[in-house]
Specification:
Helix content is 65%, strand content 0%. The chain is an all-alpha fold. The N and C termini lie far apart (40 Å).
Length: 77
């Protein structure tokens, strides 16, 4: 049962694309998916919820010319 849930989360992560497929998504998608795949087992939030929030942050950072690095997107500095 847990294996099926993990596989379902992996499918959600692999197939996720934000609404309207924004232009910067292709640049940030890999980093977003990698972070969500690593975080999913350790949080009560679904992969879909996490993907929505982090993709918005990643797209904003990309539009501002920031490097495609989740550690920079998620820092408090």
């Amino acid at each position: 049962m847990v294996t099926e849930q993990v596989s379902g989360q992996e499918a959600v992560i692999a197939s996720y694309t934000p609404a309207e497929n924004p232009p910067g998504w292709r640049r940030v998608a890999g980093e977003v998916r990698m972070v969500i795949a690593a975080a999913s087992p350790f949080t009560r939030y679904s992969a879909g919820e996490l993907l929505g929030v982090l993709s918005q942050l990643a797209l904003f950072a990309d539009a501002e010319g920031q490097p495609i690095r989740a550690d920079l997107w998620l820092t408090r500095e």
